[in-house]
Design brief:
By secondary structure, the protein is an alpha/beta fold. It contains 6 helices and 11 strands. The protein starts with a strand and ends with a helix.
Amino acid sequence: MSFLVLDIGNTRLKWGLYDRRAVDATLLSHGAVYLEQIETLAEQAWMHWPAPQAMLGCAVAGQAVRRRAEEQLEFWDLAPRWVVSQAEACGVVNGYEHPARLGSDRWAAMIGARGRVLAEGPPRPAIVVMVGTAVTVDALAADGRFLGGLILPGFGLMLKALESGTAGLHVPTGEIQRFPVNTSDALMSGGSYAIAGAIERMHRHVLEACREEPALYMTGGAAGKLVPITPLGFEVVDLLIFEGLLRLAAERG
């Protein structure tokens, strides 16, 4: 059977179409559109694909955006199903004070990461970083407990905050440098190293709490920009949220 997964973030909608007839789901196609372009999905990206039998999605962009995506699913006459973070699923225990308030994309990404950890060897801790409009840095213990996580502005939000909050400071595109000698590079480097520093601090916390080196996974549109400046050796997994959604769907049957 073909199966559709959706990840609706603050800037883009990401979609993946899988064949789940085999033991391991096979990716048939995937893509992304900006939220302003959601109405084009049925007439463009999805037009030539056969109708999926089911779908599962996570959405953090709000009810109005989710409804617009659901209207596109009518092209396939497909009933929408959306993830709400639970107290426990797929071997991950939600340690949030109010489990349902944990972002569903973070929940799916941690479940995807947990699946990777168990597939690679003995259970061990993990750090999951998502680099998008916002950046999240989440920690899992070796037994699957979600220990907690950080939320901080992404690259764009940091630069926009500096531009709007300072007189005469504009934000042209700069490069990440160890020792910036112009304003553009100073802005880009400052934001990048701020994010990298938060990640390294979480790594230190996990080492202190778990006494074991964690598995390190990074995903999101700007992950490629961040990985080279972190010395920790993160593995970039572009479709980590999709992997979590597939595991959730398999557990639900």
